[in-house]
Design goal:
mainly alpha, single chain
């Protein structure tokens, strides 16, 4: 589903929540050795995106992440290049068809989530900035939407951190929960890909869950999610109008253009197919490492910082959009 506003650096959870080691370990070599060993495992065929995320979470909660600044810095960039690489494995004609099927879902779910978020935020007596940030993160693409809208709102650092931590925790849950639910309900590849793109916040978790389900699900989910991410632009501009902010600048996410370019090359330039296979494989490894970095960035302190009310809002919005979209998909 990675800022100055100029748009966020990616569609992944931009880990504004500092990933300080969960426990201060007197022997720095131990966290580094464990980090290196787990990272090396993530580059093997036995690792998968959910496994990589789980390993990162275990690292964060035990010896801690010894390189929080580096993982935070490279998470966004690695996801961007991974998404572009995945484009070399996709067909433009199939992507257009998938995009047509998802456009109505996208518009309805974004509008509905923002309205529901506003009403629920007032009911919970949350501040408007936090409410709007969590609503935008749920409606569009998680951390990227929050990173884009936050400067428009002139949100404080703590408001940004709370919103990012909320959607990130739910992203981790979705990555593990969605594939088993899809199999239990016998969802087709097309159905599951559409559901992922609508109901999971960040591109990293969308791609990870869809990749675990199947190749067609991955193609559908990636295409629709990236099209969905473009809604950052009108939503950010709309936020500036509603909250009466001025001098707002929003830029197109460059990595989405790169994904489109890679997909067009794969479709219309057969000479790129051989190198494209290698690039797709590298992109999948990159995605696995990205999710390891994301997991390593979620310390217990970050989870506790969310608080009950913002987390309640995030869970409410996520459950509603997941259940409603699933019902409509299965009905259709």
């Amino acid at each position: 589903m990675k800022s100055t506003l100029p748009l966020p650096r990616s569609s992944a959870p931009t880990l504004a929540v500092d990933s300080a080691p969960a426990t201060a370990h007197p022997n720095l070599w131990l966290p580094r050795v464990v980090f290196a060993a787990l990272l090396a495992f993530c580059l093997t065929p036995w690792a998968s995106p959910p496994v990589a995320l789980a390993l990162g979470l275990v690292l964060a909660q035990t010896v801690g992440n010894p390189f929080p600044a580096l993982t935070k810095k490279y998470t966004a960039k690695l996801l961007q290049f991974s998404v572009i690489g995945l484009g070399f494995g996709m067909n433009a004609h199939a992507a257009v068809q998938a995009g047509r099927q998802g456009i109505l879902f996208t518009v309805a779910s974004i509008a509905g989530t923002l309205v529901l978020g506003y009403v629920a935020g007032r009911w919970l007596k949350l501040g408007r900035p936090v409410t709007h940030l969590i609503s935008c993160g749920t409606a569009i693409c998680g951390g990227s939407a929050i990173a884009a809208v936050g400067p428009v709102l002139r949100a404080r650092d703590e408001e940004m951190s709370v919103a990012l931590a909320t959607v990130f925790v739910l992203n981790a849950l979705a990555l593990f929960a969605f594939p088993p639910i899809g199999h239990a309900l016998s969802l087709s590849q097309q159905q599951f890909g559409l559901w992922c793109a609508i109901a999971i916040h960040d591109t990293s978790s969308v791609v990870g869950a869809a990749a675990a389900y199947g190749k067609e699900a991955l193609e559908v989910a990636t295409t629709i999610k990236l099209a969905r991410a473009l809604w950052i632009i009108p939503v950010a501009l709309g936020t500036a109008v509603v909250f009466k902010q001025q001098d707002v600048k929003v830029k197109l996410p460059w990595f989405i253009l790169g994904f489109i370019g890679a997909m067009l090359l794969n479709t219309y330039v057969p000479a790129t197919h051989t190198v494209g296979l290698w690039l797709v494989q590298a992109a999948r490894l990159g995605l696995t490492v990205t999710l390891f970095f994301i997991g390593a960035g979620l310390s217990w302190q970050a989870v506790k910082s969310v608080g009950p009310k913002p987390f309640t809002l995030g869970v409410l919005l996520w459950v509603v959009i997941s259940c409603v979209s699933l019902y409509v998909i299965m009905l259709g």
